Write the structure tokens for this entry.
Amino acid sequence: MKYEGVVYRPPSEARSLIIQVTIGCSHNKCTFCAMYKEKKFKIKDINLIKEELREARNLYRSVRRIFLADGDAFILKTSELIEILLEIKDLFPECERVSSYATPRDIINKSNEDIRMIREHGLEMLYMGIESGSDEILKIINKGVTAQEIINAGKKAIECGMKLSATLISGIGGVDKWRDHAVESARVISEINPHYVGLLTLMVEEGTELHMRISRGEMVLLQPQQVIAETYEFINNLEVSECIFRSNHASNYVPLGGTLNRDKEKILQVLKQYMNGEGYFKDEQYRSL
Ligand code: SF4
């Protein structure tokens, strides 16, 4: 199996077999993201994907989870995704879960019937990067969708039987827009009520448009304590049920987790302690993406 370029996957897919079905990201325009800048987006040849699945079968005795990479495998035509899922079922009968990234636009562009069919053929979980629920911030970061489109996409995926994991980025609005980011993100997540919500913390990569904006003084980054205040506002405004919350990524200053809204008060208490100066923040040198 030969991977093209650096391959990214969600932290929870660390033990999954990764199969690249696309190369890069079909959008590739978010101002903070450098993940796929060196890749020209393409959909891999279906025969090559099947060959790699057969190769993987020969290499691994037991495969419990498969993650379809790169940036948004869900952009594939429904017929192609189903062909891949049928091959997976045939070759890896022991596989318990297949998942992929999906942009809100990928979900919007598929019919409910298609999403249901894909789900029935074994793609069980979608990871959707939301980044922020603020329309102003979404525009600045060039996400290519509005908050309402994100809500529609998330609700649609869930209605069609998908498990949905939504990801946001703490600090993405900088000092000027942290409150808007927290409140609007809480509103969007509350409306979607995803199964999982993950919070990463912004890390600025050289060469990105965001890096240039910061160098020009157009945005000021949050300090760790301000990130915690933003997270407090976000959690405090959330109204979800049985939503697994994780903020334990390598980029986060403080590890947090729980099931919301059940653990809301507990998480808010921890955040309050950090806001009052009790507790240590992860040193910048140990943060990574
Ligand atoms: S953040 Fe996601 S959608 Fe935006 S460019 Fe990066 S991979 Fe693509």
